[in-house]
Structure formats: structure tokens, C-alpha cells
DNA sequence: CGGCAAATTGAAGTATTTCAACGTCGGTGG
DNA sequence: CCACCGACGTTGAAATACTTCAATTTGCCG
């Protein structure tokens, strides 16, 4: 197992990773303290309210960052993919749990040692800062997305975000002559928790987008996006549908009547 | 003006501020490069998509962090209060504008000089990191709040958040024998943009909470919270109302019928 | 007092939730 | 091999909540 994770660990320091750009020396120090881990879908990485002993960096798979509410409902506030870091650095409080949405591989760095390294390696410190700023922007993008009143708009926004943000994860996409095939990496239930609604509404939204011709549902977890631009235009409160023009006609009729 | 801001500037480095905890030496350096600013409600501090030349720290008043959508709608993704920092450090992209929600005073630090100081002052670097981690958590709390399907739940959540997060701003609160009086620091319109809805719905939600006895509307911008706990319990999909028990009765009747 | 902006209210239209039922797929055990 | 089960996705219909548009009220300012 270690022999397999060893080489993949390097992914953690390359490409779009949070840790790309750190010096070789720092990288070596990180590698020395890295504890490879592997979990199955559904397992909990960090329990809510618990101070984790390590900081992690995702190698493969998807983690969900979520909060369990008093009434038992769960809400997902973010997805972590290859190259994303998680776990609290220093004492920054955070009451979210981290669970595996799919089978997952990640590196665990003992928190104390990581923080010590952080103090001595400005490049790592800088990389972490940029990573967190990036996370902050992502969170805010989610907020804008959640502000959409129509579920189908939120779903369209999610799919567009998937294309733009997770574009680096080849495994999820496949360019086809008739569009872009996307693997939706999480279940309908998780998608509902993410978009603040129920699975039934998610299902209806998918089929509504299909009816509009923007997407084609190949499998529950595979979608063919015919036109990303069209999808993006659904992100705003669109209504540029037939309905809007119909409304305009009715309005003018009422005025003249 | 400067004579007035001079002393207030110290607030920026004390109490709950992002910059509390930095060494006196670093503080002096900051003070040396500080450019006090003052703006009226409605003015724009940083335009969307524009690279600001400075990093700011709020002294008084409230700024709103928002995004203007393609269709002209605006959505607020965060509020900045005393001690909060804003503006991009390094090149972290961010497409949000910053506007004054109320009259506002803040310090502006030239970005280049601030970044240079950051490289030489680990304490400032650390403080900034913690500040951003804090912002990240706040953003995620907003997401959870926005996931509520009932507007009244979102509003209740907002009021509770106001109590807990902005508690340090004395000006906004007053403890009374019959409850806690809160000054709602932003307009109904902004509140609507923040909670992802319209002013009419906000108004109805306020009055619904009043009917339930959780709050009393003293003025449009002053609310008496009778019982914070009761309000907090509305944050979840509550329904523990009369309606829920009524439903149970009806259900059992239907089963036995 | 008139004008204006913000807040509120009503009524009709629209979207989502809820509850319940059905279909599909993959695994299990007879 | 096939029946059964459970997890997951889908669909329908009624209940509920929100949005929209329009009208009205309130409070503030000149």
C-alpha cells in the first residue's frame, strides 16, 4: 500500500495543488512527515468539534466538509478534491466534520510538526495562505450559487462550477463531439445537501435541464453538457424562457386593455 | 479628521481585531503606513474585478462584500465590521466589490508596503492567516444559514449570528430587563440580498417571528429579542409549532379512518 | 404640508416541499 | 438461476412557502 501511495504523493506537490510552488527542501521535509491514509466512501475523517491531530492534503477522491444541525439534517459546505488541504492549522476554530464522499487517499501531516515547519518555511506559509484565500473565494462563490431561488439555477451553477473548478481532474471529464461529458462525483443525496434542497427537487431539476436541451442524462452520475454557455446563462434568475416573453405579451395586453 | 482617527486607529490593534496580538514593533510599522479613510453609506470602496492598491482594516461602520450578477441582481456574501480586514493580499483573485453599508471609517495600507512588511513580520503574517481562517468559517456559517428553506429560519439565524459574532460591537446591543435589544445595522434591502430573498419576504418573516413571540419590532432597525434560545431553535427546520402537532393528529386520524 | 423612500400588506401566480408509490440496479441467499 | 431486499433515483399530487405586482402606510426631510 505504501509502495503505491509513495509515488502518488508527488501529485500532492505538483500541478494545481495547494503545495505546488514550495521549495524542494520544504517539500522533502513534508514528505518526511507524511502519513499516507486511505478511506472508503462514508467514513469520517474528522469528527465535528474534534481537534484533529493532523493536517491533510487530498491525493485522490472527494471529501465533503459538512455540518450536522441540531435536528439531524446535514449540510455540505464544500467539497475537497485532489490537492486541497484540510484540518485546522493553529487554533482556528471550526465546527465542521470531514467525511469521505468517495473512496479517498490523502496525506496526513502531524499537526504540531506541520506548524513547526510552517514557522521555518515562509514558502509553505505563503502557499497555505494562498490556499486558504482560494478556499474563501470558493465558499463565497457557493454562497452566490445558493442565493438562486430556482433549484434548476443552482444545479446549473453547480455543473458550471464543476467544469471550471474541477477541470484539473481529468478523470471527471471527457470531451465528446457533441459536448462535454461530466461524471457527477457525488450522490443525489449529497447534491441535495450541498444545494440546500431535497433529492426529489434535484431529480426534477436535472430533468428540467434535460427538457430544455442543455444537458443529457446518460446515467444518474454521468451527464452530457451540450452547451456550457447555455447552462451558465441559467445560473442567473433566467426566465429568458418562453415564459418571460409570454409574460411581456400579457403585460402589454393588460396595459392597453 | 486625522486627529480624530489617530486615536481610533488603536482600536484596529486591540480587542477582537484581526491585528490584535502583533508585536509593538510591527504595529508601529503599520501605523506608519496607515492612511485613514472615511466614506458615506453607499459609496464603493473596491470595485468588482478591480485590483485594489491597498489592504484595509475597518475602524467603524459596516462594509458589505458583494457580487453583482449578470442580470443586475446583487448578492451580499459577507459583512465586514470593526477589526475586519479586506482587500486582496498577494494575487488571490476575488471578484467581489466592497461597499459601505453605513458611514464607515477604515485604515488603508498600501498593498506593496503591506506585503513587504508581511514578509518580514511573521507575527503579522500569522495574524492575517488566523483572520482569513476566521473569515472562512464565517462564510461557511453563512452557507449553513442560507441552506434553510424557510426565510423566517434564515432571519432567525441571522439575528442569532448577529448576537454571537458581532457581540463585541457594544453599539449594536443593549441588555434590557425584558430581553436583548439589537440594532439591525443594515437595511431591509441589504438583508434581503444577504439572505437570498426579497424585502417583502424579509418583512413578513420579521412579523412572523413577532407573532410567535420570539421578538418585538421596536423600529424597522431595532429589534427586541425576548429569548435568544427560542430564536436559535427556529434556525433549524422547526415546525415544532402548533402545526406539527396538528399534522400528527390529522395523520393518525387518516390512518385510523 | 407635499414628496419621497422604506416598509408593510394583500392577492394571485409560481416553485418547492412533502408524502407516498413506483422502478431500477446490485447484492444476497435459497 | 431467480426471488427478495435495500439503496437510490424518479414520478405524481396535494400542501406549503415564496415571489410578484400593486396598493397602502409610515417616517423623514425640505
> Which architecture of the largest domain in chain A per CATH?
Sandwich
CATH class of the largest domain in chain A: Mainly Beta
Instruction: Name the helix and strand elements of chain A from N-terminus to C-terminus, one letter apiece.
Output: HHEEEEEEEEHHHEEHHEEHH
Shape of chain A: globular
User: What's the main sheet of chain A like?
Assistant: 4 strands, antiparallel
Strand proportion of chain A, as a percent range, falls in 15-25%
CATH topology assignment of the largest domain in chain A: Jelly Rolls
Distance between the termini of chain A: 77 Å
Q: Strands across the major sheet of chain A, in which order?
A: 1-8-3-6
Structural class based on helices, strands and sheet pairing of chain A: alpha+beta
- Average pLDDT taken over every residue of chain A: 85
Low-confidence stretches of chain A: 1-8
**How much helical structure, as a percent, in the residues of chain A?**
40-55%
Determine the oligomeric state from the structure. Answer: homodimer
Most residues in contact, chain pair and counts = A-B, 47 and 45 residues
Number of strands of chain A: 12
Count structural domains of chain A.
2
